[in-house]
Amino acid sequence: MINVTKAYLPSREKYQRYVDRIFDSGWLTNDGSSTQELERRLTEYLGVRHVVLVSNGTLALQVAYRALELKGDVVTTPFSFVATTSSLVWEGIKPVFADIHPESLNIDPVKIERVLNKSTTGIVGVHVYGRGCEVEAIQSIAQRNGLKVVYDGAHAFGVNYNSQSIFNWGDLSTLSFHATKLFHTIEGGAIITSSTPMYHKLRNLINFGITGPDRVEFLGINAKMNEFQAAMGLCILDEIGHIRKERARVAAHYESQLPSSIMLMKQKGFSENNSYFPVLFNSEESLLQCRESLREVGVNTRRYFYPSLDTLPYLEGNECRVSRDISRRILCLPMYAELSESHLDLICDALKKTMSADKISAS
Length: 363
Ligand SMILES: *Cc1c(COP(=O)(O)O)cnc(C)c1O
Prior knowledge:
single chain; alpha/beta; two-stranded antiparallel ribbon; 13 strands; binds pyridoxal-5'-phosphate
């Protein structure tokens, strides 16, 4: 079976070498030397000021909302993984959806302005599939209305906008380092800030609000990354150049073989990280047919992201038509570093055959 993703694993020997250091030191968690090293190296690799490592990407979001004191209503996108929205609800914040733009697939600034009200305190955008949000327009809306901006950058590891990290936009950006992501620490995540006081505040927030020996200054939580997670991150970061090169190879293969009618438009100014390979069909029926014929040859695709989050059973509110339409027609093809040329041919052939047999045409 070929799955939509496959967690990247370093060699056992390499992980063992990093784990040996943990055993030698006897220090398993609480800002140990592996966590410190990973923080340092990620700060440099990503080209950002500060990285705060946390235990997963959902807590990264929750802690970011707390740090910025978001409350009341927060405007967000209905086209994402459920954690973007559920983390808001979990923090007692009401998500208000602004529909997405049909080309960027990200929250549409024009629609954000339409749903603002007196209780709105922030905007949570997602750089979905690593495709950047309209960061300037969002910043200007936030400034005019006194709102905070968080970017869920779970898909955007290594993405630059005009040669600068995309994570330098917004008040805070968050990352997920879950096993299925481009860069991972088994489970893990990070919060990124360019403010040094905010960096210290975040570090205290993820450690119970403890600010010194015998001192608890404010409400915090336990969201710390441990040393074994950091060790995996260090192994993967050693190999990140290779991983990204292989993913680019997979993307290039799909692009050369598949009809351009199902490809998403490229974005100007943003670099690509090939975290996912989404294709957009002209109808849900076409998607289901293609998905079935892929399944018959042993290929598992995923309907990322379906259903649209404005249909979540625990929410009520505005219907987002573009997001609902896109989520019915979009499918993520297998994308990971070790995907072989023969498997890629198998996937492309099955897709092409179904598309021509069933006269599935352009979206
Ligand atoms: C994976 C993901 C998350 C959640 O991250 P975890 O590390 O699994 O908690 C949040 N938002 C988006 C967009 C994601 O893809």
